Amino acid sequence: MSPEQACLFRWAEARAREVFDLFEFSEIRTPLLEETEVFTRSIGEDTDIVEKEMYSFPDRGGKNISLRPEGTASIIRAYIEHGWNASQDIVKLYYMGPMFRGERPQKGRLRQFHQIGAEMIGASNPYIDAELILNLEAVLKNIEVEGFRIVLNSLGCVEDRTAYKKKLSDFLKSRGADLCEDCRRRSSVNVLRVLDCKKEVCISVVKDAPSIMDHLCEKCADDYGTLKTVLEDMAVSYEENDRMVRGLDYYTGSVFEVRHPGLGAQDALAAGGRYDNLTRDMGGPDVGATGYAIGVERMLMVVNEDKVPASSHGVLVIALDEACRLEAIKLTQRLRSREIKCDMDHSGRSLKGGMRKANREGRKKVIILGEDEVKSGKFMLKDMESGEQKALSFEEAVKVLAESRQI
Ligand code: HAM
Q1: pLDDT (tens digit, 9 = 90+) per residue, 28-59?
Q2: What is the largest distance, in Å, between two alpha-carbon atoms of the chain?
Q3: Please, which residues have CB within 8 angstroms of residue 183's CB and are 6 or more apart in sequence?
Q4: Chain centroid offset of residue 364 CA
Q5: pTM score
Q6: Which end of the chain has less Cβ packing within 10 Å, N or C?
Q7: Ligand 1: which of 70, 95, 255 to mutate, most ligand atoms within 8 Å of CB?
């Protein structure tokens, strides 16, 4: 990552943190490496991630470990390990950092990418889903992302889904020959993924497929209905898509994606949903949970860069000759001790070279230090826009620089 990209990332992360703090989420940092089982048990053996995308290898002791492909599984592992359910409260956590998936790289799809995510663990109710979506919307808005759409669906509980999968399989059996090769395979191992295929042939088959909406039990339908009512009441716009499924197996009930038209084929910049069985299935207490993750690289592809503050340089100290360098380095340190952002021109080429560097970096002020200045104890402070220069004492220079926001 280049310094410019790192700067943008740092800004986005800081903006996200402001919102997490406002919503009273606490940060969690999980290891990059986990025992492979943490992911296989949670994400699902038949998912693309576990089947072919994880970076897994034996460690020195022969234990199979993997680079984390996502954050949720490790967080639940930590929740169980540390007994965080003891408080009986909802645990609200957020995280940010790199994830790894060995996918075929393309626009918006990387092998090492970053996520900013949040999880609310401890109960299952639609108001928690609503708060989480409100949080996601607030994070995106604070990062100056505009023009996104929130797409909702419910995948129902395990019982609903089992019944629905059977209906869908039966439907696809009669139309199987019309599906793409991948989907012919998927229809026996992970049939819901057929709904998600972007190929024209599959889209036209799936158009007539039964809808999960007709297979939701009363509780799942009520929870989904309440979530929609709360979002409408809170003026959160969303659209529904009963064909939207997720690439991870742990979801139950309401799920969502945030899509952006500026992204092309990989148009989901964030996704998440409820996963009420995961904690229990991983050996922990039977508590509901919900969460989301934003793909940072994808999000930054559509961020309104006009609103992103440009990184700024402070004042550049230019020593006119070798003899003044020691004074110049002392001066930069004195300026820094007064919170004045500054750098020294180390090229030592010439005044011209130093000025060229200041121009290139868009600096507003430079300090020129020659033999006369060292003797008099005054420095030449030059304004790059007006070309005006003044001999000032250190205190006078600090005052001008602080006022002109060179800090
Ligand atoms: P996911 O849908 O696999 O969900 O990933 C979330 C987001 O990460 C995607 O919408 C996308 O923006 C980004 N992303 C995924 N793979 C890549 C990639 N190869 N390159 C670039 N960006 C990518 C999860 O990871 C779940 N853990 C979300 C969640 C949290 N559900 C509940 N809690």
Answers
A1: 999 999 999 999 999 988 888 998 999 999 99
A2: 93
A3: 193, 194, 197, 199, 202
A4: 34
A5: 0.91
A6: N
A7: 70
